[in-house]
Design brief:
By secondary structure, the chain is an alpha+beta fold. The chain contains 5 helices and 3 strands; from the N terminus they run ααβααββα. The chain has one domain: Orthogonal Bundle (Arc Repressor Mutant, subunit A), CATH 1.10.10.10. Helix content is 53%, strand content 12%. A 3-stranded antiparallel β-sheet has the order 1-3-2. Helix 2 crosses helix 4. The longest helix has 20 residues.
Length: 113
């Protein structure tokens, strides 16, 4: 392996994320990597929704529940129970920022093609 023969871009080394942070971040991106799960997140952007409200005409309750469970495991959503109903909402404002950044980046890529 050859070494670089140029001056470093910066004299200070950036603080690198820990292995645990990288693992959690990768899991988060994996959960975001499905259009149907992203659709659910966008539908939660305006506030809390009951699972029944999130089931569309083209999806089954079990499918939506599995998608929500994946998002819950990635800590992108939170849920609460009220009697027999489960309600989901976005975990925090960071989720909105992630989605908005992803869309903006996708739009930039599409416009440059």
């Amino acid at each position: 392996m050859t070494s670089c023969n140029h001056e470093p871009a910066s004299s200070t080394s950036p603080t690198l994320p820990s292995a645990d942070q990288l693992t959690r971040s990768a899991a988060l991106f994996k959960a975001l990597g499905d259009p149907a799960r992203l659709d659910l997140l966008y539908r939660l952007k305006d506030g809390e929704r009951c699972v029944g409200e999130l089931v569309g005409e083209d999806a089954k309750l079990s499918t939506v529940s599995a998608r929500l469970q994946t998002l819950l495991n990635a800590q992108l959503v939170k849920r609460r129970r009220d009697a027999r109903h489960l309600y989901y909402s976005l975990a925090d404002q960071h989720v909105v920022q992630l989605m908005d950044n992803a869309l903006a980046h996708a739009d930039e890529d599409a416009q440059s093609s």
